[in-house]
Amino acid sequence: MFQRASSRSASRAATASATAPADANATREAVLSASVGADGTATQRASRRVRRVLAGLIAAVIVLFIARVVLGDPVVYLDQLWLILTGETVPGLSFIVTEHRGPAAVVGALAGAALGLSGTIFQTLLRNPLASPDVIGVGYGAATAAVAGMLALGITGPALSLFAFAGGLVVALFVYFMAESGKNTGGRFILIGIGAAAMLQAVMNYLLTRTDVRAAGDALHWLVGSLSSSTWDRAAVLAACLVVLAPLTALAVSKLRILELGDDAATSLGLNVRGTRAALVVLGVALSACTIAVTGPLAFVAFLAGPLARLLTHRTNFVASALVGAALVLAADFAGANLFGDVTLPAGVITGALGAPFLLWLLVRSNKQGMGG
């Protein structure tokens, strides 16, 4: 009897030991499938959110574009706008729509999109929300070269874009190679860029004081950042830049994602870190410089677009950044043209007024997080 009980206990133990791994594997598979399912659900939810945000931003840009064209003094009603767009002449309105408001709206949308892409490239590349062309000297380099071209050589049109691109590129490469010489590349890039911007601002002021008063006045008006001088030719210059640079940005996004993992991880994945970073800097400079050559420096648009897009989508999204930039410039130009009575303010004044408080808030927020860490 004792032997029979012992054999029954042994058989139970053997059965339990045989079924334990199966139960553990089943439990592990259940946990893994649940976690995968939760991750998949979260990813789908995030993707739906991004799609909704992008749809809302597209609608906002379209509404702001139409408002910039039809609202003002005089108001252009939608039936009149349709007649103008179909080629009919509406006395007193056709010229306003086709030669003034239309080009301004197109240039504003294109300029905002280019600046949004440029700012997001620099901010993602340097992993710092302060790293925009406005802050790190690239904008001042492009503006100084453009002012020198306008005042000293009388350059206009596409040649001015080349001058601005060259100035911004020289400054960006100077700051880049200076920052690469030590640790904490992102922080050094910003600090050296701020110093370069201060020197370039002094050079620009010197050029303005040494030239004819009328020419200096035109340059100062341009330096504020205005869409009032927009033409279809200038819109074509910006459109050509974006036709080339936007696809290059789309191709560069995958490289930028790898760089976000850190230099060591990117190198282990076979990426040429220094070459890729330099190429991205050139791309960001080109987007910013082409815009500055056409509109002047629209303050803080490149700085604002990326962080605002991240607040909306909870991730870095270049399409959202471009749409936010376009919406910012169109809204600023509309506000400057219509909300201050008889006074017309350039778009750059409005964007500067919006960007300065945001910069202060960002600095205070970063300081509190640093202290907390």
TrEMBL record:
It is found in: Cell membrane. The keyword Protein transport does not apply. GO terms for cellular component: plasma membrane. One of its GO terms (molecular function) is transmembrane transporter activity. The chain crosses the membrane at residues 53-71, 77-97, 104-123, 135-153, 160-177, 189-208, 235-258, 278-306, 318-337, 343-364. InterPro entries: ABC_BtuC-like (IPR037294), ABC_transptr_permease_BtuC (IPR000522). Residues 1-21 are annotated as: Disordered. One of its GO terms (biological process) is siderophore-iron import into cell. Keywords: Cell membrane, Membrane, Transmembrane, Transmembrane helix, Transport. It is a multi-pass membrane protein. It comes from the Bacteria. Gene3D superfamilies: ABC transporter involved in vitamin B12 uptake, BtuC (1.10.3470.10). SUPFAM superfamilies: ABC transporter involved in vitamin B12 uptake, BtuC (SSF81345). Belongs to the binding-protein-dependent transport system permease family. FecCD subfamily. PANTHER family: FERRIC ENTEROBACTIN TRANSPORT SYSTEM PERMEASE PROTEIN, FERRIC ENTEROBACTIN TRANSPORT SYSTEM PERMEASE PROTEIN FEPG. This is Iron complex transport system permease protein. It comes from Zhihengliuella flava.
